[in-house]
Design a protein that fits this description.
64% helix, 78 residues, single chain, 2 strands, mainly alpha, rod-shaped
């Protein structure tokens, strides 16, 4: 019966170690996706693409929609 108890202790120790490793690795993929989505706050008025900052948005607009008029909010961005 001693081996049975030893096996149970070993499994519990391994599960605890796995839990620690998982916690150290960081967030789950779902949490990372949510955090990334929060960072995409600028939305293109033409194609609805999302961008993290106004400079990227302006570059996108100049390259993808050159025939459209630039939005007022992007004219001041350098």
């Amino acid at each position: 019966m001693a081996r049975g108890q030893q096996k149970a202790q070993s499994q519990a120790k391994a599960a605890e170690k796995q839990a620690k490793m998982k916690k150290q690795q960081g967030h789950s993929a779902n949490e990372q996706k949510k955090a990334a989505q929060k960072a995409l706050i600028h939305v293109c008025i033409v194609c609805k693409a999302q961008m993290p900052d106004p400079k990227t948005y302006k570059q996108h607009f100049e390259n993808k929609h050159p025939k459209n008029d630039m939005p007022e909010e992007l004219k001041a961005v350098s």
